[in-house]
Amino acid sequence: MKRIGLLGGTFDPPHLAHLALARQAREELRLDELRLLPAGQPWQKLAAGKRAPVAAAHRVAMLRLLTRGEPGIVIDERELHRAGPSYSVDTVRDIHGEQPQARLFFVIGQDQYARLHTWHDWRALLRLATLAVAGRAGEAPQAPPPVAAEPRDIEILALPPMAVSSTDIRARAAQGEEISSLVGPEVAAYIDQNALYRADLGS
Ligand SMILES: Nc1ncnc2c1ncn2[C@@H]1O[C@H](COP(=O)(O)OP(=O)(O)OP(=O)(O)O)[C@@H](O)[C@H]1O
Ligand SMILES: O=C(O)c1ccc[n+]([C@@H]2O[C@H](COP(=O)([O-])O)[C@@H](O)[C@H]2O)c1
Fold it and tell me: PANTHER family of this UniProt entry (predicted)?
């Protein structure tokens, strides 16, 4: 049975913790393939009044640079081509429809796991995929009560803690600080050459 990992994100910008999480999932879950799924409309971030992400073409270009030559990691752009809010359950349904025999693993960090019950039709997502959760910022994987009460298949990923976030990187880039150690030299050069995040308007 084919084993496919799905790692969604806004990737604004993608960073070394995303890459570490993808690699960890690939190894620990023995994946045949891990798909990175950049979100078209990260509806919860937008609803919270956060700034719109940079253009999808930039986020995809940075993901390509971050993952160049990385075996088993591919970029799946389907959410960028779908109108309306990016609901993960729609993506999982699509991929399940295309590959009904495959086992799907939906990979997330604890910050998102803690909010999973606020996602669109999250129970259906739990029925279609195994969740693979990594701790984040010192927080070990732990289900929020509504999710804990639901039957679910879950794997815990042993990702070493990494104090990296896109929010912090945008703020640093806006200050003209060095960010290579957080995104790698190629993504850092891309951000510089394309003058991304120069005026970070917060969050
Ligand atoms: N340092 C990290 N450790 C573990 N998981 C992470 C880390 N950074 C991101 N993730 C996970 O990667 C996925 C995509 O994250 P996302 O693109 O929103 O990055 P982010 O750094 O959280 O961005 P932002 O700071 O803008 O919210 C989410 O499931 C998130 O939990
Ligand atoms: O499906 C939902 O309702 C939903 C709500 C919030 C976040 N997500 C997904 O979770 C992933 C990480 O989101 P974010 O906002 O932390 O970049 C990304 O793939 C989002 O599309 C999905």
Answer: NICOTINATE-NUCLEOTIDE ADENYLYLTRANSFERASE-RELATED, PHOSPHOPANTETHEINE ADENYLYLTRANSFERASE
